[in-house]
Amino acid sequence: MKNIKIGFLVSVAASVILMNGCSSDSNNGSSVSYGLPITSSGVAYSDFNGSVIMDMELSTDGKTLYAAVNDSGTNAHPDAVEHGLTILNLSTGVTEHVDTGLYGRYVKLSKDGEVAYVTAGGDENLSFIDLGTKSVTNSIYIAGYVSGIAVTADGSTLYLGAESDGVATVDVATETVTHIEPMNGGYVTTMILSSDETKVYGSESSGYGLITYNIADNNFTTIDTTNGNAYDFDITSNELTAYVSTGNNNEGVEVISLTDKNVTTSIYDINATDSLDWVKQVKLSADDKLLFIASPDYDDTLFIVDLEDNNTVVSAMNTSATACISPSSVEVSPNGSKVYVGCAEGVIVEYALTAK
Questions:
Q1: Number of folded domains in the chain?
Q2: Residue 247 sits in a domain of what CATH number?
Q3: 273-to-53, 210, 214, 252, 270 alpha-carbon distances in Å
Q4: What's the rounded Cα separation, in Å, for the pair 149 and 104?
Q5: Measured in whole angstroms, how far is the alpha carbon of residue 140 from the centre of its chain?
Q6: pTM here?
Q7: Pairing, β 176-181 against β 31-35
Q8: Parent domain of 260
């Protein structure tokens, strides 16, 4: 076990101070609003042995952060030694690591919070991790570079994004692949299950855009982004709008109407500002009023967008001020009060939003 927690004072330039609506405070049940941090104490958790923080998920109580990590690639520290799943206790700063023996790409928790599912990217595996014993109970082969994970409400089924094979369906009880639906070379990354569980949305980064996999008839429909690539995305709680990162083609974030099935606008004009550059992950606040954007290639920045003010970028936080180089993942606390940014070289930074 490790316990490294470093405090920083960070000045944040913001053009607008806004209310982030009402979020439920998980500690006392009261209604609390959160706005942008103007001056915020950033806390860096930095004992991940230099591995890249690829993806994160918080426990439902917001007290534990689970990170898929890997020790390979250009953004890893030269001395990085961990890959798999790292578990961070946010109350104590203690980290525990579960070595899957595989490249950690995406992480998702079971509905009861007792199991973590971790995909292994190019290692083409899905690992099942018992969070009680902190041990790998099984790893199963998934054809293709396996990425995002969606879980049904009853916890019985997983849908995985995979290169070439499109979407793989996994039965949790038997821990077996029950169906693979190919996508003619498509590379599906992030996965989000619709609330009625009739379809899975996925970002497809090799020329298709935002895809919809219709579960009953096993077919795909596509909403094209401007350049045909979709690296990551998030969807509003009413499932009417998607915010899509168009990945490494310097196109930033596009706004898609899931009703009209087309791009309605972009967060910014690429030709005018070129500000967001390569966007790795996007994440909505619980009330869908703020959008958090991790951009590693533009001075290590966490952009915060006010979606109620004409999609205005109201804050651009230099994450390197809190030792966060190349931010690649974002997670928001259940009550909306904190934002976590996963970075290269084994750093996760916590920023507290301002209570109003």
A1: 1
A2: 2.130.10.10
A3: 28, 24, 37, 11, 6
A4: 13
A5: 23
A6: 0.86
A7: unpaired
A8: 2-355
Which amino acid, residue 311?
Answer: N
Tokens 């703020």 belong to residue: 290
Q: What's at 161, amino acid-wise? A: G
Residue 117 backbone phi and psi in degrees, to 5:
-105, 130
Q: Looking at 126-130, 153-157, 192-196, 318-322, which range is the least confident one?
A: 318-322
Which of the four pLDDT bands, split at 50, 70 and 90, describes residue 75? low
Q: For residue 137, name the pLDDT band (cuts at 50, 70, 90).
A: very high
Both tokens of residue 324? 């966060």
Q: Which two tokens stand for residue 198?
A: 């009739």
